[in-house]
Every structure is written in C-alpha cells, then in structure tokens.
Design brief:
Elements lengths: L4 E5 L6 H15 L6 E5 L5 H8 L5 E4 L16 H5 L4 E4 L2 H7 L3 H13 L3 E6 L3 H5 L3 H12 L5 H6 L1 E4 L13 H19 L2 H6 L1 E4 L5 H8 L6 E4 L6 H14 L4
Helix pairs in contact: 1-2, 1-12, 7-9, 11-12
Length: about 260
C-alpha cells in the first residue's frame, strides 16, 4: 500500500516565534499517529527553526518553493542547495505561485528537475479553475499540467514524487470537491496520465494528494477513496487540533489506526 502523506502548507503565515509555538503544540500528537508521512511546510524564515525542532523525529519539513539554479545573481530566490540543508520536501507549482508570480508549466518542470537532482521530494500541484470546471475542461487541463510537469523525468523519478490535485476553486473558499469528484480526477485523470506516459507500476507507485478546503470533518470520506493517498492542507494546518485531526482521520480511513 502507498504510504499516506499529509502536508501542511502554511503559506505566508506565522512569524518564526509563532511557527515554533505551533510545532510545539502539535508535535507530540502527530508523533502518535503511525503509518503516515507527516510534513510541515512553514514560510522560509521559519524553516531552519522548525527543522531544528523536528530533527531526529519522523516528521518531515518542506519548503513552499525553490529556484532551479544552485546559486547566482537571482535576488530574492532560494536555491535547492539552501532548501535541502533543512528540508526533505518542496511544494512546486502551487496555483498561487502560478497565478501571482508567473510560474508556467515550463518553470514548474525546471524546478522539479532541480529538486530531484538535490534529493528533495517534490509535491507537484495541478488543478483547474472554476471557469475551466464549468466548461468541462478539467480533464484536458489537468492532463496537460501533469504531462508538462513530468517532461523528461524517468519512471523511477516519477514513482518517488508526490502529485497534488488542488482544484483552484476549492482553495481557501470553504468549497471542497466531493469525494467522488476528487477520486475521479486523482484516479481517472492524474494516475491514468502517469500510466499512459510510463506504465502501470509507476502509476500505482506515485502518491496523489487532494488539496482544497480539507478539514477534519471531510477527511475520512476523501481518504477512503482508493486513488487519494493524502492531503495538501492549507488553512486547517495552521490550527494544531485541526491538522492533527486530519492526520488521525487519514490514518483511520486507511486502516492504520
């Protein structure tokens, strides 16, 4: 069975002191949930402190972005070498990065290649807008994003990364895809695209998260779907009780608790 992976994307929230307090509030409870990968993705300023707090534990640390060059005159950017010093994971291609900061399918692919070259596990985001969903373009759009993201990667590289289906219309809106809708895209679109590009073994190995208004009260239904292997959690990951609840409900839904 694929190991479920729950990642908290804190986005641009929490000062360093607040990040430390949040980790201290939830760490002991997260450690009590076996069989799942648990990843915290704080803002860059808090990454070193969070990493120090979690050192020696099975809890992972993720960055929210990186640049593809190892060093150079790129003011304001963070290189893979800097990320890997503290992190095991990195979120790439989040819809907010695409919408507000000009990320494209091509730059997402460059970042994935750089992350993999530096032994980081990419959490690669794909997802459609409300307009695209209403125009019944979900399958074509998400398929294209997956194809572009994985360009030039080997089957073994793809098997080790994480794909996160995040319908843009569900992020931070309180709206969540139904479990059936999420399963349809994660399975019949995302996993099916990997199978077509590579093979069934690769498709069955890659982990696929759902993200978009994930909360403790809808986690069990989402995680009971066969092609949903975890969640990329936004707002709920900023509350210790909520994130712990999501992690625990995920483990229960997968028969690990």
């Amino acid at each position: 069975m694929r190991i479920p992976i729950l990642a908290g994307n804190w986005k641009m929230n929490k000062t360093v002191a607040e990040a430390v307090a949040l980790v201290n509030e939830m760490q002991a409870d997260l450690l009590q949930v076996p069989g799942v990968d648990r990843v915290l993705c704080p803002p860059f300023m808090a990454v070193p402190d969070v990493s120090r707090l979690l050192r020696g534990t099975p809890l992972g640390v993720g960055a929210q972005n990186l640049f593809w060059e190892p060093s150079g005159a790129f003011t304001g950017e963070i290189s893979p070498l800097m990320v890997r010093e503290f992190c095991q994971y990195v979120i790439i291609g989040h819809s907010e990065r695409r919408q507000y900061f000009g990320e494209t399918d091509e730059t997402v692919n460059q970042k994935i290649v750089a992350a993999l070259a530096n032994d980081l596990v990419p959490i690669v985001c794909v997802g459609e807008s409300l307009a695209q969903r209403q125009a019944e373009q979900t399958e074509a759009w998400v398929t294209g994003q997956v194809e572009a993201a994985l360009k030039g990667l080997s089957a073994s590289q793809v098997a080790g990364l994480v794909l996160a289906y995040e319908p843009i219309w569900a992020i931070g809106t309180g709206l969540a895809a139904t479990a059936a809708d999420a399963q349809a895209v994660c399975g019949a679109v995302v996993r099916a695209t990997v199978a077509r590009l590579y093979d069934d073994a690769t498709a069955q190995a890659v982990r696929i998260q759902y993200g978009g208004s994930v909360k403790p009260n809808n986690t069990a239904e989402l995680m009971s779907q066969p092609d949903i292997d975890g969640a990329l959690v936004g707002g709920a990951s900023l509350k210790a009780a909520d994130f712990v609840g999501i992690v625990r409900a995920s483990a229960q839904a997968k028969g690990l608790l």
